[in-house]
Fold these 2 entries.
Entry 1:
Amino acid sequence: MFYHIKELQFEAKPDQPNALMAKKLQELIGGQYGEMSVAMQYLFQGWSTRGNSKYKDLLLDIGTEEIGHIEMLATMVARLLDDCPIEDQEAAMKDPAVGAILSGMNPQHAIVSGLGARPSDSVGNPWMGSYIASSGNLLADFRANLNAESQGRLQAVRIYEMTDDQGVKDLLSVLIARDSYHQNQWAAAIAELEEQEGILVPSTFPREKERMDIAYNLYNFSEGEESSTGRWAQGTALDGQGEYQYVQQPKPEGAKPILKPAPLKTHNTLPADMQANTK
Amino acid sequence: MFYHIKELQFEAKPDQPNALMAKKLQELIGGQYGEMSVAMQYLFQGWSTRGNSKYKDLLLDIGTEEIGHIEMLATMVARLLDDCPIEDQEAAMKDPAVGAILSGMNPQHAIVSGLGARPSDSVGNPWMGSYIASSGNLLADFRANLNAESQGRLQAVRIYEMTDDQGVKDLLSVLIARDSYHQNQWAAAIAELEEQEGILVPSTFPREKERMDIAYNLYNFSEGEESSTGRWAQGTALDGQGEYQYVQQPKPEGAKPILKPAPLKTHNTLPADMQANTK
Amino acid sequence: MFYHIKELQFEAKPDQPNALMAKKLQELIGGQYGEMSVAMQYLFQGWSTRGNSKYKDLLLDIGTEEIGHIEMLATMVARLLDDCPIEDQEAAMKDPAVGAILSGMNPQHAIVSGLGARPSDSVGNPWMGSYIASSGNLLADFRANLNAESQGRLQAVRIYEMTDDQGVKDLLSVLIARDSYHQNQWAAAIAELEEQEGILVPSTFPREKERMDIAYNLYNFSEGEESSTGRWAQGTALDGQGEYQYVQQPKPEGAKPILKPAPLKTHNTLPADMQANTK
Amino acid sequence: MFYHIKELQFEAKPDQPNALMAKKLQELIGGQYGEMSVAMQYLFQGWSTRGNSKYKDLLLDIGTEEIGHIEMLATMVARLLDDCPIEDQEAAMKDPAVGAILSGMNPQHAIVSGLGARPSDSVGNPWMGSYIASSGNLLADFRANLNAESQGRLQAVRIYEMTDDQGVKDLLSVLIARDSYHQNQWAAAIAELEEQEGILVPSTFPREKERMDIAYNLYNFSEGEESSTGRWAQGTALDGQGEYQYVQQPKPEGAKPILKPAPLKTHNTLPADMQANTK
Amino acid sequence: MFYHIKELQFEAKPDQPNALMAKKLQELIGGQYGEMSVAMQYLFQGWSTRGNSKYKDLLLDIGTEEIGHIEMLATMVARLLDDCPIEDQEAAMKDPAVGAILSGMNPQHAIVSGLGARPSDSVGNPWMGSYIASSGNLLADFRANLNAESQGRLQAVRIYEMTDDQGVKDLLSVLIARDSYHQNQWAAAIAELEEQEGILVPSTFPREKERMDIAYNLYNFSEGEESSTGRWAQGTALDGQGEYQYVQQPKPEGAKPILKPAPLKTHNTLPADMQANTK
Amino acid sequence: MFYHIKELQFEAKPDQPNALMAKKLQELIGGQYGEMSVAMQYLFQGWSTRGNSKYKDLLLDIGTEEIGHIEMLATMVARLLDDCPIEDQEAAMKDPAVGAILSGMNPQHAIVSGLGARPSDSVGNPWMGSYIASSGNLLADFRANLNAESQGRLQAVRIYEMTDDQGVKDLLSVLIARDSYHQNQWAAAIAELEEQEGILVPSTFPREKERMDIAYNLYNFSEGEESSTGRWAQGTALDGQGEYQYVQQPKPEGAKPILKPAPLKTHNTLPADMQANTK
């Protein structure tokens, strides 16, 4: 069960309106690695966690925090759209500087959302449930989380570099710091789980059931030997259970697949030598 | 530039047809973490890598391998659909065992693809470009890759447990082994990069520009203290640059946001005290 | 800013596991009119409300409540999936009753989410940001909200009729009651706004700018006169500003559109009489 | 069965080409609340109406009208794209005014559709079947329709304010007038149904089956009391069957959910105290 | 402008209800090659045709016909869902034959659409605007149309083979016949255009601007020589302007691409030899 | 199984960076008819081909070639984004020429992909599996392929006309030439199949099962007789099995559909005359 207070956790006020920045910040709201994604990802993971109350609590702590991040960004976007000219745009565009902004802004900010944020990314794709991961396996999911915080901080940092608006920078410096913590934090949780389970997800599958003879091979499918010099191509594997091998010339083990002709009533194309019979 | 040979890298032959297994295996072809995802993810990352030829070669080695994985699974799906009854299904359903299979199979396998694989997941969602990550930052992307291989192996293992078809198990034991290697391999590549750059992505952003005072805090937004006992809530952070803090009662730093009324011509709802003026 | 407590607002415990019911309940989580939709719709509306703090507070009250509804349903789905057989499904399907359940269940519940809820609807479509409305105009949006609560209660009621599991019915009887209140509540909010503004959205557009001569006409485009007997075809319009008219035989006012040929370099098909010139 | 005549119901001729306006008008063709949505929504509702021929006729009258609205807008878009420079754009962009237009236009209008309209919105998202509602319950659906006409008129009005092209304004003044009628008309149909059935959708569910003790409560989940002053928080509810209650401090009725551990073969993360057993 | 009459062009009455057939027929309504696709494809092409009134008229004739096809199928689906048990499904499933139907049916037919058709395909994917083609080039688009009618007839024929319901067969025999005509008709229109323009789309691009030295080569990228025996690998090309060539061993003409390092502020991974400078 | 070499089949170097051209070229990578579509379409068709090794080999030859086309375009996009200003964009936009480029570029190229290509089209829609066709019927699919190559060449040609960058033109002249060959090649394969099977897809369905009396009719659903003058309206049909007929005034053969009322527990709106009974 959730409660809300009206105060923002951190301030979200630009120095001045800027419809192009509003468009860019949408990536951090509704993009693949935006705040909607991390909020929903952590909450679904938390709600589905079976046992493991320490991790469940952690997921729900952070999932709840992230809803507040959407809130701060939505507030920022609304303020960046203050005074955005709905009317008489065609006249206004005679000024080239104004023209560049009006032609580049997200038209849905004016037409659809009435100067409010959208649940979409910076090019207008709606946020999708298929952006998130929640598998029931915490080590797998914490890796998804570490990735999300890495991509998210990278994007926030890039937008930070684009702007000279101190208010926008102030909010981004908060989000960047939180993404730093969340990387530090998922990395710690991953280390804890890997210590218990080893590095392979899932740890519970008996390894004798997999093809162990090919489980440490790097196949050189792209000509050139540079990849053979990495740690992943020689020495004991990180899981401690095998030796990395570099396979310079990968060969097929399987045969050419010949598929059985489909029955006539599929109306597939029949093999040429069967066609006589059907006429 | 790519070349193809007709032989499969590994065999892909079920012991017998099974339309329900064909439907499940679609998750490994066109699901969020299926082979289309890893193939495209590694290739786009490889094509976009600037410098770093060792990693570029690695990405292209594995991306190329993964196209062959789609091929093996597509072959397996086609064979699992052999003899699938297109005609007279309604009569056939009078047998309950047949009925359960026909009602549960993916109808597009019969109607749309003519007993071939689809570029879709196990419930029929088409594969989407938004499943993949390619950011230009290799540490971020290798974390995406480690996650993808973790989720992918988890899914393959779950399907392995469902079946007693030895041919299907044989192919899955290959895919599981390759996912093992790829976890071992991305983990090694990540270790190499983290040693150089530290654990925070991106490493190149000057940390004094972020809000360092909040960059190590765990906020207790979900009531209950279990999360405070983790490694992420105490001691020196994994990045070595701060001390984890547990904030038992998070307080807002920002104010309640009051948004400026929109201009009349947005035709937004006006604040009640401004409405008199517009009538 | 948001806070969470672990207790559910209402209990969410089925009498027994049921993977088919888990699949159906996904409609109420991630469907077009599920709880993800109303939660996000009310929060985005609330965050974007300019002035009008009474409505803003209301939106945030209810948006926050709805996140808790997702939580209760996600918990219910996880419990309905307890004991769901991952392994040896093919053997289990020899029992027809089990076969019907296994063939009908959502395969992603077993393969992808590890017996947890998915951010998707009952056929597996991921939730999308394009399901929600947030326009800046509260009367428009409250109509969207009343619609959402109407469709949502209808769906919950239909699922209620399908089941004989008392635990599922108990949760649905809560959700149905809340949808009742929310209909009652948005209807009251709409009445309040319509009293102030009239019934046309937006109320701020000067009506003399629209084609008032056609603003009260029902055009009989589908042969048959039944629609002419409704209130919308005669008498004073509900907005009080015109008389409804029934137009028995609608006639075109515009001409046949003749489009100008495209320049050669669009490589469109040229009109036949221009083609000679380009060869 | 449908018939078509070539004449447009109303004229659709801009004063001059304008590729940016063409992009904006796409929202009214293929957006969430564009003409494709209302056309398909009314037709699917009409085709699915069981009995109730008065409403069925109405739905088919208006659904048929709306196909003609797509036609007028598609014609307008094609004309706004007349003379749009496909060739030598890079040279043309040296003029800043031209540059603003070319950089802001929808590139698919030039590359993909050859200066014709697209079945997409103003940022290029394709129209989707999931935009529409058709539930079998006419009161629910008429609320969806009233919402669609409200959002649609709002968007048309906003675009009207942006332009000074009299031809575009003329078409918009027609569409705005029709949206006025359709609001007036759905409101009348809703009033008629509510008089028969009451305001709750669906009216046929026995209310004693829902949790009537919570069916009139406004829960104060977002701190602040402003919402308590509304009509929805006091007095007899609009449905006449209960009294609105304001719950100042909502308390949970349910317990903390503890989920049962998943079987080993799901390969979920096991609760810590069970992990010893699996090694 | 469009008109509608209530009569169906052809009858649409199943012999008896069948929820599984209702699900399958959705492919013909809202699938990639269903009737929504051809209706919208022909109408958008027709509305965008510049000059060429013979083709424009043809497109609008057939586009209008296809809306009536959606109508017939939507009617058929609604009737196939007559008597579909909404209530007490769990009890009903104790009968295995009923169980197979209830577990296999589209749950949205019961929960969402109230026994009406959905704008979706047979696995529930909503119809999308991106299914259609409308390019401004009629020869290109007529090829899209011929493909759509080929795929559409193939799907209808496959469903015909599945059923023994004479009413369903009767409607399908109509749709199959119309798809026959439409193949015959687009083939004739294509022949007419190819005679005028030649077979290459677009015909208006000066061929000396393309790399004519490689414009007739079949590259043997997949090992095996079977494809070399086709008409496309020898003799004069169908366009009459070159000789087909079979290139047994394709060789690269380009260099290995080395991408320029990105500026520091993209926060991409820097090439290893540049990293020293940034610390 | 696939192999890769690092060399590009053809060079992919622009004369100079150009972020707007990078955005446009995305259409050829991840658009409906871009290289991802043809690569995946041909590979899925090839992998699913049953027998017919000549066509299977052809499909795999060309599918493999097309992966290399994505690679060349991804390389070109990365180079067009060289030196793209991530930082200080707001200052840079004071120059109108720079402003037009920065406001028009794809913001995800800077924020998300770090100056690399995206698996998306020119307006940012992610590539989708639902773009491709693979039906098991080769004649149907080769028509899909001919269409794809026609639309693809058309788009490439349009972009060619827009640019004056010789490096971009050089790559496009390669892609245009390959699209020429592929049109020539699919046309030849189609001719071969049509000679064997006739022009109707599928050829294996017994024609007496379709409504032959309506299988050659052009219905004049859009007023105006221009379409009656085409080859498709008179003379022997191209399939040689009937005579084209022009039906000047199409009449319905079916009745007005009256749908049976739904059971009470669907909670559909009841027909007015049944409502008394339920109260």
Note: Chain F touches chain B through 49 residues (CB under 8 Å).
Entry 2:
Amino acid sequence: MVSLDLIREISRSSASKIVLLVIDGLGGLPKPETGKTELETARTPNLDNLAAKGICGRCDPVAPGITPGSAPGHLALFGYDPVSCIIGRGVLEALGIDFELAPEDVAARGNFCTLDERGLVTDRRAGRISTEKNAELCRLLDGQLIDGVKVIVRPVKEHRLVVVFRGQGLAAEVTDSDPQQIGVAPNEVSALKRPANRTANITRRFIARAREILTRHHPANMLLLRGFSKKPELPTMAEVFKLKAAAIASYPVYRGLAKVVGMEILETGNTFEDELETLKQNYLSYDYFFIHIKETDAAAEDGDFDRKVALIEQIDSILASLIDLEPDVIVVTGDHSTPALLKGHSWHPVPVLLFSKWCRPDKVSQFSESACLSGGLGCFPATQLMPLAMANALKLNKFGA
Amino acid sequence: MVSLDLIREISRSSASKIVLLVIDGLGGLPKPETGKTELETARTPNLDNLAAKGICGRCDPVAPGITPGSAPGHLALFGYDPVSCIIGRGVLEALGIDFELAPEDVAARGNFCTLDERGLVTDRRAGRISTEKNAELCRLLDGQLIDGVKVIVRPVKEHRLVVVFRGQGLAAEVTDSDPQQIGVAPNEVSALKRPANRTANITRRFIARAREILTRHHPANMLLLRGFSKKPELPTMAEVFKLKAAAIASYPVYRGLAKVVGMEILETGNTFEDELETLKQNYLSYDYFFIHIKETDAAAEDGDFDRKVALIEQIDSILASLIDLEPDVIVVTGDHSTPALLKGHSWHPVPVLLFSKWCRPDKVSQFSESACLSGGLGCFPATQLMPLAMANALKLNKFGA
């Protein structure tokens, strides 16, 4: 991988525009009955047309055999080494609700949960309480001051919340209280390293108070915390790539990931159509757009092959309005594969399509896992995608004399 | 990339011979009217025949998306990491005129230029004065002693010259005086790091004296300096690969690059035919030959698709005399792509052909970008080419027990 320092040295700002369309969990596995993956089953004339005019290949988000979470999957697509740039769950969740994390903040992802009279977890999601109830409970917990540390509590959705500890000298190296199973008591938070002792102590005191406050609010009579983390300090895309980058994503966590690398977050609706409308409205104001579509991954995680196929067809059918904007570079790929057959993220390389006036086209005329096998981009680490997109947008100067 | 230390450990000297033919800027982009690149358009029976019997692929000189200058492009082909081995413009220019740089020398590339009465640059090339006039002016500037440092001034070609500062304790970290544009005054040379303060000072004094000396020589009434650099200390090809390596290149800068890795420079003429004659005459004395052809790159930089095609055909037509020598390994590639459509170096992978008795042939029967897509070498970093050539020449011992 070429270092971000090298890219920073040769990148240049220009009027050309790059659009990265991430179809979450795009890659799949063939259905035994047909021998075709979700993408191969879907009728995708627009994607096929782009593939025919562009260059295709496959990328490994992290490395061959490694199944990535959403964070490494996206960081790699943004050009950042997903192994050295670790983003904790708490930070992601906080960024996803547009919470402005200070550099010293420690954030944890929380669930409201149900404890029985013996103190054992009976439901890790407290019966998926409403987001309104969640907000009401968060107000009860928010704003405590413990040993000079302010504890900020914010609702996310249904049973999910974010807890941010704000103060001097906090450390994120503490264990989760969430046992990730039912029938056991929450774990006691403890320090993984000595400098985190105080943070662990404050967290334990906060959890104890929360239990008291929540005791009358069955089924949400307790909370579980996990993924304690601080925001990583990454150079922004403006610094590295000299891009004015914007993110269009309906799901919080993807907005959060975009924010970590300094993208501006554009308000948008819940559908891909909404996202394309947002793209249109903001097209002149940025030179890089990251557009995220979540539903394909969700369908595949549910094991619903056909729904994923239908969603891909639907995406394809409205892709023309993106193509009509004539971005200099269009990249279509996923942050990882999610084969419906596996009902989860997988390690399989993700199909990649890059279209630009300056790409050297290959013979691929269909956007699919098997067609991409013979693509001109070969199989490559996803971190190479940004330099390639930048090159095809003529945004990289020559390296060396 | 396998380290040079590992190669040094397993390389062995033998009678077998390797010829690396670098067709500068070889890779291209398809002409929209035909869908064929320069190489695909050219009729190349000899190259196709070699491709059919050999193994093909594509290489990235530096990394995907990175457009290399000539120096990184060639260093990679010679097996050296082009990112860590940086060669400055000044050093390149000095080596290219067969100037023997001492390890402590600081070299700068110079242009004679024209200043108007206000001291602003009106022509960065002083009307491209003749090489004879250049030599005459260099003699006026040469040999000054400033603060114990000898300033050596040598003509290159037309308006170009080399200035070498020779003395103790010099540092290359100084800024260019060449503003790279007209209508402005030359920049004042300043130190980028404190140890370069004295060098910057000496350079400023030299430039001031040069201005006085040149004042009556309009249009060449001033000089501009850039690319201050010292010769990098690289292990030679003899040390790493145990090769007796020779370079045959009609253009100075490529001879200079070959010299940096310790090749011997063979005197040759201006044409590929001259170069092949030089190869024949010296064939018994060396076991590695680097042959460089510049014209293809020049044609593509001019945007002249057809001239590049014609040059490739011409190269192919006289290739038989190289093949007839029956080298054990023939490698044909470029140091980078230069598509006529882009009129400049580009990031596109470069087609590679490796012919040897011991290669495992693939199905490629034409030497072209698209045919190389399915070549047995795949797409690989150009630094891997030397180990591959060495292996195919049976010049690498087994690694490990």
Note: The mean pLDDT of chain A is 96.
